[in-house]
Amino acid sequence: MLAHGADVNAADTRGLTSLIVAARQGRGDVVERLIAGGANINAADQDGTTALMAAAAGGHDELLTKLVAAGLDVNVARSDGGTALMLAASAGHAGTVKMLLSRGAKVDAKLSDATTALLLATNEGHDDVVRALLDAGADANAADAEGVTPLMMAAEDGSVDSVKALLAHGADPTAIDDDGETALKRAKDWDQDEIAEILKQAQAAKKERQTGRR
Length: 214
Fold this sequence. Notes:
The longest helix is centred in the last third of the chain and has 20 residues, at about 195-210. By secondary structure, this protein is mainly α. It has helices spanning about 20-25, 30-35, 50-55, 60-70, 85-90, 95-100, 115-125, 125-135, 150-155, 160-170, 185-190, 195-210. Helices cover about 50% and strands about 0% of the residues. The radius of gyration is 20 Å and the shape is elongated. α3 (about 50-55) packs antiparallel against α4 (about 60-70), α3 (about 50-55) packs parallel to α5 (about 85-90) and α10 (about 160-170) runs parallel beside α12 (about 195-210).
């Protein structure tokens, strides 16, 4: 197609270019040809999604490495604030998350509603991604616009490993969202008995520490 003079940067009605589509599909060979043919590596669709974001969402790590090497910024955000890291975290691609973090991705970047990659990972129950983000320094208490924390998400989802990891990284077991609910309340509401017990112990330990400082 390129040899016949087609516009390598032509986009459809949604703003999708051949580069973005190829990246979404993990077609590294096509991406290389498109870039060599003059494709705009920073092109974005109508929502602000770039080729790098598309590759991250699909967990295409080898392709992602090539795109970063070509000059794409790992922290470019969509119109809603979403980044490549958030897309990879939400999809459960732990290897991609680690790669993006090693390339300078901002671990606590926020969507327009203050949602972080950690909140997205806990909401989807991706324990390995949660650990990767926490190990990279993610704020365990960063809440969304309604006061919902990663610990609340993990408690409701039933992710025992994530609950333990969050508590180990300083998550507040007594935090309250805008509806007046705690992680313990959510665990009880969703019959997550093991998590409820863990949170009860965490709350008791916090109270004991506070009493000891008086």
